[in-house]
Amino acid sequence: MKIIGHGNIITCGEDNHFMSDGAILIKGNKIIEVGDTSSIQSRYPEAEFFNANGKLVLPGFINAHMHLYSTFSRGMALSGEPARNFKEILEKLWWKLDKELKSEDEIYYSAMVSMLEGIKCGTTSIIDHHASFGLINGSLDIIERAAKDCGVRSVLCFETSDRWGKNLCSESIEENVRFIKKTRSDRDSLISSTFGLHASLTLSDDTLRRCLEEASILNSGFHVHVAEGIEDVEDSLSKSGKRVVERLYDAGILSEKTLAVHCVHINEREIALLSTTKTNVVHNPESNMNNAVGVPPIIEMDKAGVRMALGTDGYTPSMLESLKVAYILPKLKYEDPRAGNDVVERMLFRNNAHILGLYFNNPAGIIKEGALADIVVLDYSPPTPLNSINYFYHMIFGIRDSDVDSVLINGEFVFKNREFTKVDYEEVMAKSREVAKRFWEKM
After folding, report:
1. Regions in the chain scoring below 50 on pLDDT
2. CA distance 258 to 307
3. What is the predicted pLDDT for the residue at 77?
4. pLDDT tens per residue across span 124-145
5. Distance CA 436, CA 443 (A)
6. How far apart are CA 388 and CA 366, in angstroms?
7. I want to staple 121 with a disulfide (CB 3.0 to 4.6 A). Which of 147, 291, 295, 401 is the partner?
8. Are the beta carbons of 263 and 243 closer than 8 angstroms?
9. What separation in angstroms does the CA of 219 have from each of 213, 257, 314, 358?
10. pLDDT the model gives residue 102
């Protein structure tokens, strides 16, 4: 057993409260008790004791939409005229990159780097959306190995798409099916799965039907990009006479188990369909800004009862960074300094935690008895009072990634006193540079 003691604990969740000089008792991968440090320590003197020394203790951050494979794009210089719109960004960068991911090393190290950087930012869980059309079969096993090597809780899928032809599309469907079956036997492990789809603009009606048939047998939802760019809407209208959400709704893709990522270009009827089906929407503010695709109608979705979570879309490993931008962006969009505060506050801990709970037996993103022991310790000394009511604003205006001192995932320290415990970080980065250099030569 372990005790994280002498911490200033924010429990988060619906019954969020602040506990000064609090302690968390951990057995295996679960939280057993939360209470006063002296009381817990006196009753469990044999437990390993970690002294938080008054540091802030929070549930680990959950990234609800990530592209681990995007790592090797960092710093890459592309020849030719820069992309002028979202479709060209896909064609000139991302679709070229994922087609050239062909080796185990490329997939492994692109995942490892992003996972380790996420840990340094306090991220304990990642819901990933993978694409490597140069190596499909077994690719999710490679990412699983990376996740277990560094200790990150992960939900994995493969991006099904028609863009590279029928054979590779079929392989991507088979990879989703195979991996879902593999992970279903152990829902208490670090790894889970869902069914990946790219986006409406690269999915035919026939492919959607095939995916729905397979997912229905497996009782799985989907992880799919929805109306990210206007090109997705135009393509859907051209194919079907329907907007993107309408097309996916008619195809049976939307449900409470599905993650609809982005939802930038949607109208009132589509918002109603997302709400009716209880489909989860994942907001990725920095990526949307970088791709110049627009800002999703988060206030309208919230009023309609749509559950919205927060991701990074591969733009950054930092959920704190994404949170800060998510907080600011609606103020600009709606020209109202009040806009989005409560909506964004719910995203990171409540809604992300709910979504992660779809894939594991125990709750996460909360500090309470029975929850998964995924915890971040922050070396943050607030210059003003901090409590359960204002902690969110300390996260927006005070807490930084550099404050992350220690991280536990599944009851195990993976980052302790600012040092990785399971892997040699510098060795991983050095190997990644070697693999990336060879990869760039192909690109």
Report:
1. none
2. 11
3. 76
4. 999 999 999 999 999 999 999 9
5. 10
6. 13
7. 401
8. no
9. 10, 9, 27, 12
10. 96
